[in-house]
Each structure stands twice: as structure tokens, then as C-alpha cells.
Design a protein that fits this description.
Number of helices: 11
Largest sheet: 4 strands, antiparallel
Distance between the termini: 17 Å
Number of strands: 12
Order of helices and strands: HEEHHHEEHEEHEEEEEEHHHHH
Helix content: 40-55%
Radius of gyration: 24 Å
Strand order of the largest sheet: 6-5-7-8
Shape: elongated
Length: about 375
């Protein structure tokens, strides 16, 4: 039976999710800018018309704006919230006005200021995952001697059909070693329908078993569907062992690295047609998922917040002009050329980047709307 949370859960979940995460992201930029003495003209949660705000003693305008789909930190010398340099305004600045201007800060300082936003989102994600590992523990197989040993098969198992037997130990996939059962799951999950070669150990002998990863469509309690890869094998049960703060933090970074790898794989599969563009989501889907996770309780919601925070860090580091990654790409070019890319060229690139982002936002929003039950999907 499909469960549907009350409508207000979607609104509250969306605000509780994006509001803090965007604020944390922009506050990362703000703090790093203040550390280097760069002036901040405006700090906004949301875009568009200001709903409420005030100006502090440093001259920074703190705003809550009408569209809660993002936010920005506008530094002194920026042409607009996207940090596009205003060539004419910069050239006309007096020496006194250049003091505290973002575009007159040393290159390494500008790079760190831009990088601070995504890094703050990464820190949030790592901290949440680390907290979960501290509370729950690290998953380990009960009997280490039975690691990756097949105990049973699911109905319709592609591994069983390919000749894998109970008692076999999976030691590699396509020649790459797999140390624990989770390594197998992560390698298979994002690759339904892909041909691979399992390396198995049977009675002291190494065998190569070619097979095609099974494809399964899984549906959660809210009716959300996802296509995943499955071998159809079960190994020994797991337990959870307590870990130290240092180990939990390391595991938090490992978890983030694994999720980023899955994101990259998923995007690549969409671009190559291996996955449907319907799997892309925008603000409406985020609101839907946030409301659903909120209905499951604070632990599920905080875990989802970690995933979205990591997504924000990843997306913002893409080398698209107007995103943080686009700025960093220009700074890398400046470091190599020993001079900035021309202001007009930057402005053109940033405007093109904004157009691409807006087009993508429009696409995913329409995609989200078409996925609603009213349209039959």
C-alpha cells in the first residue's frame, strides 16, 4: 500500500531541508571572505524580491527573499549575486574602494572563498554520516571467515543461473578485488544489465564466471521507483561494532566518496541513454522526497539532508560558469596564464552558464510536474 504524507509535510520538509543547507553553504563563503577582509554587500537566503532584511554595522544587507530555491553571498565588487565582475566598475575604483574588493583579493584567497561553500556542505554531510556511525556502529559480517561467501540465492538469481554455487566466495568483479559484501553491492547496484566477470573461489580453485547483472525495479512505501542492479545472492549476516570518533569520521568520508561515485555514474548513464531522464529531479521532487523522509522521522530526514548537502557540494563544483566550479575553473586558467581571463569573456561565459542552469531548472521542473499522478505518470 502506497503511503502519502499530508501536503504540509512537503512544504515544511522542503523549507527545513534547503533553508539550512543553502544558508550553511553561503555562510561558508561569507566566513572565508570575512577571514580575508573582503567586504560582503549582501547575504540572501532565497532569490528574487526581498521579503525581510536588515543592514548590519559592516554594511552587509541580510535578506530573506521570496524564492526559497537557493541563496547567495554578494561580495564587494561583484556585478551581481553570481559574482560576475563588473569591468567598468572595477577599473573606476579608487585605491580606497579597492580595499576589501573581492576581485582585488589575491588569487589563492578568491579560490578559497569560492571553495568554502561546497566544502561546508561536504563537512555537513561527513558530520551527519559520522554521527550515524558513532550511534549505530560499523557494519561487519558476523563471521569474518564467511565474508563474501554465498549462503543462498534469491528467486531468479542471475548469479545462480550463471553457475555460481552456494559456498562460493566472490573475490573480484572484472578483475578488481572485493574485500567485503558491500563492495559487491556498490559495484552492482548502479549497473543493471551490464556484462561482468565474477571471480569466485571454489574449493581452493579460482574461477571466472561471466554473467549479466540483473535489472530490478524497486518501489518504496511511497511508490517511488528506481532501477537497480542485482546478482540475487545472500551472504552471511552482519552485526554492528562500535567505532571511535576518528574511525567514524573516516567512514563518513568513505560514505561520501561512494555516493559521489554513484552520482557520477548515474549522470554518465543518463547522458549516454542508459538511464531515463525521468530520474532527474528538481525542486518539486526534492520537496516530495523531503516530505516523505520527514514523515519517517528525524533520523530518516537528517540522513536525507546529508545526501542533499553532498549533492549541493557536488553540483556547485561542476565547472559551469556561474557555479562555484566555474569560478574555480577561471581561477585555474588565471593561475596558468598568470593573468585573469578577460572581463568581457568572463561576463559572456557567466551569462551563458546562467542560461544553461535556468534551462536545466526549467527542464527538471517540467519533468517533475509530468511525474505527478495528475499527468498519469
Amino acid at each position: 500500500m502506497i503511503e502519502t504524507p499530508p501536503f504540509w509535510f512537503y512544504l515544511v520538509g522542503f523549507v527545513l531541508l534547503l533553508g539550512p543547507l543553502v544558508t550553511v553553504h553561503e555562510f561558508g563563503h561569507y566566513l572565508m571572505g570575512r577571514l580575508f577582509g573582503v567586504g560582503v554587500e549582501a547575504f540572501s537566503v532565497g532569490f528574487g524580491k526581498e521579503v525581510v532584511g536588515y543592514t548590519d554595522r559592516r554594511g552587509t544587507r541580510w535578506r530573506l527573499s521570496a524564492l526559497p530555491l537557493g541563496g547567495y553571498c554578494q561580495f564587494k565588487g561583484d556585478m551581481n549575486p553570481a559574482s560576475i565582475p563588473d569591468a567598468d566598475a572595477i577599473a573606476a575604483m579608487t585605491p580606497a574602494e579597492r580595499d576589501g574588493s573581492f576581485h582585488h583579493a589575491p588569487l589563492w584567497q578568491r579560490a578559497l572563498i569560492v571553495l568554502a561553500g561546497p566544502l561546508t556542505n561536504l563537512v555537513v554531510a561527513v558530520a551527519i554520516f559520522a554521527a550515524f556511525f558513532m550511534m549505530i556502529g560499523k557494519p561487519v559480517q558476523v563471521d569474518p571467515a564467511e565474508t563474501n561467501v554465498i549462503q543462498s540465492f534469491a528467486e531468479g538469481s542471475v548469479a545462480e543461473a550463471a553457475g555460481v554455487r552456494v559456498g562460493d566466495r566472490i573475490v573480484s568483479i572484472d578483475g578488481e578485488p572485493v574485500a567485503e559484501f558491500r563492495d559487491i553491492t556498490e559495484r552492482v547496484l548502479m549497473h543493471p544489465g551490464e556484462a561482468i566477470v565474477l571471480g569466485v573461489e571454489r574449493e581452493g580453485e579460482r574461477l571466472r564466471v561471466p554473467l549479466t547483472i540483473g535489472s530490478a525495479v524497486e518501489r518504496d512505501r511511497f511508490g517511488n521507483e528506481s532501477r537497480v542492479g542485482r546478482l540475487g545472492v545472500w551472504s552471511s549476516p552482519i552485526s554492528y561494532e562500535q567505532v571511535s570518533f576518528v574511525e567514524a569520521t573516516r567512514l563518513g568520508f568513505v560514505e561520501c566518496a561512494n555516493l559521489v561515485r554513484m552520482m557520477v555514474t548515474g549522470i554518465g548513464q543518463i547522458l549516454t541513454g542508459q538511464r531515463s531522464v525521468d530520474e532527474l529531479g528538481g525542486p518539486i521532487k526534492i520537496a516530495k522526497f523531503s516530505g516523505e523522509q520527514l514523515s519517517l522521522g528525524p533520523v530518516a530526514f537528517v540522513g536525507f539532508a546529508a545526501l542533499i548537502s553532498l549533492n549541493l557540494a557536488f553540483i556547485n563544483l561542476l565547472p559551469i560558469p556561474a557555479l562555484d566550479g566555474g569560478h574555480l575553473a577561471f581561477y585555474a586558467a588565471e593561475a596558468v596564464r598568470r593573468k585573469p581571463v578577460g572581463a568581457r569573456g568572463q561576463e559572456f561565459a557567466f551569462r551563458a552558464g546562467v542560461a544553461v542552469i535556468l534551462a536545466l531548472m526549467l527542464f527538471v521542473t517540467v519533468n517533475d510536474l509530468l511525474s505527478l499522478p495528475i499527468f498519469g505518470r
